[in-house]
Amino acid sequence: MQQAEHTIVWNNCLRIIEQIIEPQKFDMWFKPLKAVSFKENALTLEVPTNFFREYLEDTYLDLIKKTMRRVIGADAKLFYQVRPVSSQPAMQYPASEGMAPVNKSISVNTYPTNGNPGAFVFPGLKRIQINPRLNPVYCFGNLIEGECNKLGITAGESIANAPGTTTFNPLFLFGGPGLGKTHLAQAIGISIKEKYPDLIVLYVTGNEFKLQYMDAVGVRNKLTDFLAFYMKIDVLIVDDIQDLMGSGTQNAMFNIFNHLHENGKQLIFTSDRAPVDLQNFEERLLSRLKWGLSAKLDKPSYETRLAMLKARSFREGVKIEDNVLEWLATRIQTNFRELEGVLISLIAHATLSHKPISIELAREITGNLVGEENKQVSLETVQKTVCDYFGITRDELIAQTRKRKIVQARQIAMYMSRNMINCSLNTIGTELGGRDHATVMHACNTVADLIATDKQFKQYVNDIEKILVSVR
């Protein structure tokens, strides 16, 4: 009987692994594994328990991935299948992206604390290993791309391919909380370490840098060591640069920036505000922060939020019905962090209470986590506001009529639903008389054109928008 392809591939991997690890460990951790599918260079292994999967990830992931690349190729992918209860469908997990990146050790000049650097005082050499402080979860593979972050991701990928040599140096990422600035900045660092293992990458927050400076400035010669340390970095990522208060701290960053930039090193900064809005920053440092590319991260659209929920639930190994995810994507519109927090809470509550994941449970969890002040305008509110403004009923709004007043009202309702709620085109069309997504898209484009060319129409839209903003 001919063996299935997934069995052949996994047996080839086992033959290599068997030669590397101890027989007892091979029997304990690899013999119980069973290959269940192989498709498009993705191998799925069935593991006995979730604990088993976690131990493999922690102990043998690097070995398994290297072996798979040798057998399958560079684009090999690994998935796990866990069946916690025989009567339930198996849960599927993607393999982790890998271990946390590690920097090679480097030599740093250090001066004795009881001496003064000068012509006759020579520094000593000290070998240190700098922890890059990069979280492997924050990789490009786990980053959902949308219009909200496309510019930043595109620039980040270019930097990862050629750090320090692009026009995006420095890269300045800015936007509100929870929009993925830290994730994107770390993803660039992780990708650089994968492509250029010998480069020294360091992630640090603005507040940590400030505290390090304050600690160094109070000890003789320690400030010299502080500056020497940072000037050894090849890729410096500073998160929340707005926390870099104080003239001394900013002066230190100014000197470090100049040294690294002049030597072709890559600089990446994040902030909760645009460079022009940074307060109490020295003009010379501010001008350097504006030197390269400033990329704003905006609130994610409905489609991006939905894609993020699907990707995260898959990473958690949990199958959630589309209608629940769509409800969450419509309900939570502020940022990725809040959306992710609600999803994890929903999964945890369903697991601990042995309840199915449903819209009812999602509504309960969301009500406990999302305050009234964060609740967004609903489709019903948009429709009622538009109807009241134009003096028509909802039945007239959704009716199949070509009366100019009603057509304009319907188009404005579609436009507001799209821009203030970020609902999907299909959902908007369904709520407004069962129209298709192409009709909704045409309506949104028409409204945008009329706002630019028709002063009276623009006034309609502005009036309705003010009413909707006031009821949030």
Structure summarized in a few sentences:
With 472 residues, the chain is an alpha/beta fold. It has 19 helices and 11 strands. The chain starts with a helix and ends with a helix.
Structure in words:
The protein is α/β, with parallel strands linked by helices and 472 residues long. It has 19 helices and eleven strands. It has helices at 5-18, 23-29, 50-71, 150-161, 181-195, 206-217, 222-230, 247-262, 283-289, 302-315, 322-331, 336-353, 359-369, 379-390, 394-398, 404-421, 425-431, 437-453, 455-470; strands spanning 34-39, 42-47, 77-82, 91-94, 105-110, 124-129, 171-174, 201-205, 235-239, 266-271, 293-296. The strands form three sheets. Strands 8-9-10-7-11 form a five-stranded parallel beta sheet, sandwiched between helices.
Features:
single chain; about 475 residues; alpha/beta; five-stranded parallel beta sheet; four-stranded mixed beta sheet; 11 strands; about 50% helix; flat
Report strand %. Answer: 5-15%
Spatial ordering of strands, largest sheet: 8-9-10-7-11
Shape: flat
Poorly predicted tracts of residues? 117-123
Radius of gyration: 28 Å
Classify the helix fraction into a percent range: 40-55%
- Biggest β-sheet, characterized? 5 strands, parallel
Kindly name the structural category: alpha/beta
Q: Secondary-structure element order, as H and E?
A: HHEEHEEEEHEHEHHEHEHEHHHHHHHHHH
Distance between the termini: 66 Å
Total helices: the number is: 19
Mean pLDDT: 84
Please report the total strand number as a whole number. Answer: 11
